Amino acid sequence: MSLAPAIERLDPEELLRPLDDVAATGELPDPSLTAQIAAVAERVLELPPAVVYERLTPPLCGRNPHVVLQWLREAGLLVHLLPELDATHAFSQEGGRRHKDVWEHTKAVVRQSVPRPAVRWAAALHDIGKVTTRRFLPDGKVTFHGHSEEGVRMFRRGPVRRIGFPPQLRERVELLILHHLRAGQYDGSWTDGAVRRFHREMEPFLVDLLDLSRADVTSKRPGKRARCLRMIKELEQRIETLAQEDARPRPLPPGLGNLLMEALELPPGKHLAELRGRLEALCEGGELEGGREAEYYVEAVRARGLLEGLEIQPPRGWTMPTARMK
């Protein structure tokens, strides 16, 4: 393929045609072709954003997305379409370690990610905020505090204007960029409440987020990589287990404890939990109906003598309310 004979009259969409071969073969085009395209690369901005999205997404979701990104940069197209991503090239994540630059990390994340458009686009753009948030500490360490939030701001200012993301996909990519660190922060110490909160907040895009988090593990150290992937898997399993528990029908109604105390003149204490346990066991055994009104279970306690054997110890200083004593 050559563009030379009609380079002035070239349809800008032709600039992106080599992407199909790059995606299929994983090989870069002839350097002369890449050079021809680079000479007129700015013409890619003449394409409508919707066309850019349609031409870039299939190659990005193909078998060789990292090579696709590399060729876009070498052909001078990336700096026009995604200058935010182009700026990550040779941008070090750790002092003095070029192999740790954001560009190489990003290509690795894209290569490892599942081939769904939202995940692949988020993988390509998840770290663009690092360019403006990098700070060097006195001890030589590098920080990127707030790079997720900055990445979202950059995404809104740039890529969404040059690339015509469908509205729902644009929103999902934005959320993935914003929250891409969340799952990786799980260390096994989260309470069940914290896991439930994470699930509730991330649920609309949880599958994509966990897949992106797995792809974002690019450490060359086997032990660290295995540990990170194990933690993400553990988080996923805890979410599933807690969701299953929460989906089980609750046999007893809310507020039953207060009604038992009032109707049976019981003080507060752990005996109430034991009493509820006896009622739940009867429901599970089919001897009582689940999901009935609270009064039904109060009568069951009386009729079945369920208070027998309970150690009822009023809290120190507790006295029965006057209304109950009359």
Provide keyphrases for this structure.
57% helix; cca-adding enzyme, domain 2; 326 residues
What is the compact description of this entry?
This protein has 326 residues and is mostly helical.
- Radius of gyration over C-alpha positions, nearest whole angstrom: 30 Å
The assigned CATH architecture of the largest domain is Orthogonal Bundle
Q: What's the order of the H and E elements?
A: HHHHHHHHHEEHHHHHHHHHH
Number of domains: 2
- Report the helical percentage: 55-70%
Strand content: under 5%
CATH superfamily membership of the largest domain: cca-adding enzyme, domain 2
Structural class: mainly alpha
Give the N-to-C terminal Cα separation: 98 Å
Q: In CATH's first tier, which class of the largest domain applies?
A: Mainly Alpha
| Main pleated-sheet profile | 2 strands, antiparallel
Low-confidence stretches: none
Count of helical stretches: 19
Roughly what is the average pLDDT, rounded to an integer?
91
Please state how the strands of the largest beta sheet are arranged side by side. 1-2
Shape annotation: elongated
Number of strands: 2
Instruction: Look up the CATH topology of the largest domain.
Output: cca-adding enzyme, domain 2
